[in-house]
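Need the bound structure for NAI, inputs here:
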Amino acid sequence: MQNTFDVAVIGAGPGGYIAAIRAAQLGFAVACIDDGVRTDGKPAPGGTCTNVGCIPSKALLQSSEHFDAAQAHFAEHGIGLKDLSIDVPKMIARKAKIVQQTNEGILYLFKKNKITFFHGRAAFDGKKEGGWQLKVSPLSSDKNEETLAATHVIIATGSSPRALPEAAFDSKRILDNEGALALTETPKRLGVVGAGVIGLEMGSVWRRLGAEVTLLEALPEFLGVADVAVAKEAAKLFKAQGLTIHTGVKITHVKSSAKEVAVEYTDAKGAVQKASFDKLIVSIGRVPNTRGLNAAAVGLALDERGFIAVDNDCRTNLSNVWAVGDVVRGPMLAHKAEEEGVAVVERLAGQKPHVNFNTIPYVIYTTPEIAWVGKTEQQLKAAGIAYRTGSVPFMANGRARALGDTRGFVKWLADATTDQVLGLHIIGPMASELVMEGVIAMEFGASSEDIALICHAHPTLAETVKEAALALDGRALNF
Ligand code: FAD
Ligand code: NAI
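Answer from helper R.:
Posting the output first, comments after.
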């Protein structure tokens, strides 16, 4: 196998595999090394996103949403169902199939783009005439260590779940994202530590399938990263769905036994509380994967939080070594990782790419979905920026009424003087798709009036996006 390359990418998650493909398109000789492994020993490229993140979580969200709709909403459409049931192992098998198809799709793309794939764990082994030397350790004893050399190395090793100091993951009762996505039956009592993105998405899956879900969040306010109006609406809707959310919690003790997992915590008032669960998902953020790279030996600098230190262009302190995605600063999102990976290799090809952190969209795939881009109202207030806001509920939208989902609203934020769009915040049906209107508006430096002037198809949910822009100028037509 070829072992000298222009570019070697460590990690085949969305940051790594997309960088490898773009590098190959640009004419570089490319290697990609990944240690993801399927239960049958075959490679599982795609990283967290494909194997235990974005894709499998959305598969389970879809299955559980169908179940919820059949249980709670079909009757209002006149559809009768007898003996509704959920076969959790079948739902998990469907998810596994989607993951496997994605793994195979990535291997196909590697082949198509003539990328040399190494299945193993990569570590730096110094620098020689031919460039950076990498060692690839095999994942099974019947394979041998391999070595390769590359002029440029892109580190895209991703992140791993952060454990509670009080309790390690045991894959039985105390679960990380991987465990949360692999349950074979619905737990009766599900505890979730951390009411962030994973907590809300996974809590929603298992709540829809019948679990009693309690989320324990350390911060005093719920969903502080979202716009304050969206967070308030989300708290109200999630409570109505049956999710119990306690904020201002401090976990003091966790004990897992054969029967259950017992959690002791202090509540927002400082009172000691005790709760018992059948399963406990811990989703309190993630830590960068830098161990095993032999980073210290080659002098690769990390920042104070343990991420690989990079400049705006994803350049590390080592010449020709770059890092992208979850292993560096910034939001831990697949699309952010991809953009960084593409930008790095385009820079190597002499182009002048740019990743605009101000227009990265955020989505939480709950029901209703939550999505936003740009500044929140509280951020604008804190920065002393004068703004105007226009907000319209989906209740006023004909398509939403036909869909039977009128929860939530669309809210634009625009500069008070120039009318330039500063943010778009949506809670409601298909928010994940609608938010792109805000991303495009911000990328093109549009004003809210530009959005209000654009003809939107009728009847669509997107009409609420236009209507909210009209509302910003006090001239909404349907609300
Ligand atoms: P990763 O995807 O983590 O890939 C890194 C790869 O490198 C892995 O395969 C790893 O095993 C491998 N690796 C590490 N070290 C080595 C080594 N030394 N040698 C060889 N290989 C190595 N983001 C979204 O944008 N949308 C979502 O809906 C979404 N949902 C998520 C749901 C969950 C439950 C989780 C946990 C995450 C979710 N994310 C989502 C976040 C998203 O998965 C990450 O931001 C994204 O995967 C980061 O990509 P990456 O390429 O940086 O790293
Ligand atoms: P997160 O940062 O979204 O949420 C973690 C939550 O845990 C926060 O609210 C935090 O205050 C809380 N917390 C921290 N320590 C705690 C403690 N000791 N006790 C109680 N609460 C505590 O991180 P999460 O949910 O683990 O997800 C990790 C990453 O994966 C996120 O950065 C996110 O970007 C990404 N992701 C993205 C998704 C999407 O785009 N739809 C879906 C799922 C994950």
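Comments: The longest strand covers residues 146-155. The mean pLDDT is 97.
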